[in-house]
Description:
Elements: E1 7-11, H1 16-25, E2 31-36, H2 39-48, E3 54-59, H3 65-78, E4 83-86, H4 101-129, E5 132-137, H5 150-169, E6 175-180, E7 185-186, H6 189-195, E8 209-210, H7 211-221, E9 228-229, H8 233-248
Parallel strand pairs: 1-2, 1-4, 2-3, 4-5, 5-6, 6-9, 7-8
Bound molecules: NADP nicotinamide-adenine-dinucleotide phosphate.
Amino acid sequence: MSEHKVTALVTGASAGLGLEFCRQLAARCDVIVAVARRKERLVALAQELDGSVEMHCLQADLGTIEGVARTLEAIRQQGPVDYLVNNAGFGTFGNFDASSIESQRAMVNLHIDTTITLCRAAIPFMRERGGGTIINVSSLGAFVPGKGMAVYGASKAFLNYYSLALQDELAGSGIAVQALCPGFTRTEFHDQMAEDGFDRERIPARMWMTAQAVVEVSLAALGSGQVLVVPGEDNRAMARFGLQQQSDSLQ
Ligand SMILES: NC(=O)c1ccc[n+]([C@@H]2O[C@H](COP(=O)([O-])OP(=O)(O)OC[C@H]3O[C@@H](n4cnc5c(N)ncnc54)[C@H](OP(=O)(O)O)[C@@H]3O)[C@@H](O)[C@H]2O)c1
């Protein structure tokens, strides 16, 4: 029997948090399958990590059935994947009734359909092996519904509820589920939103975190049993405020 290689599959690995997950998981893994549409970025990352981990670059559009199918095939071939990081995502900015329904549906598809599909494929292998880790990259926006980001926040709230229930269902399996809920993080995420009118300058400097710090918090929380992980004290205060507002609205 061949020796098991500790393997991670990271979606959205060509930039921001996904790229940083690959960098930090390289210390824990033998193999990383990095998935995104921009192949040249993945190849550059593979070159950067050359020697520390075996990298597989999978160019796939996870908004398409074909791209998801090829990623599922990678999970099947690598199975069991030890770390599944569902990170690929994007945000739009603008009032819902002024937005294109195609962009909103594409966001729901990528954040929700793709995530549950990859989880459904990976979990049986993890169960068979008796362990594994799933990190679903959610958002602080899941706690604080925001004008201009109605569908975005709702899609991330789905990931929180889904991750909490999934962890309950997987109790005793050795599989850990985390919904990572970053606040403002310096990545390429806001580039398109800025073109749509989002003003980065309105966010106080102390609210911004680096991708490196966010991923460090995520990985450090593994093993704690914590499902909802909100990096940063200010962000945790914001999340509590959002939950309190929901609670107050029931009275
Ligand atoms: N930055 C923040 O402030 C922040 C806050 C809370 C949550 N988040 C969440 O963090 C996650 C990562 O975002 P980020 O901040 O790292 O943004 P980013 O720098 O824009 O990176 C997004 C990644 O997702 C990939 N991606 C997007 N659409 C894809 C598709 N259809 N198929 C495959 N890959 C796709 C991109 O790769 P390609 O373009 O090469 O395909 C890229 O690698 C997202 O889920 C986002 O919602 C971010």
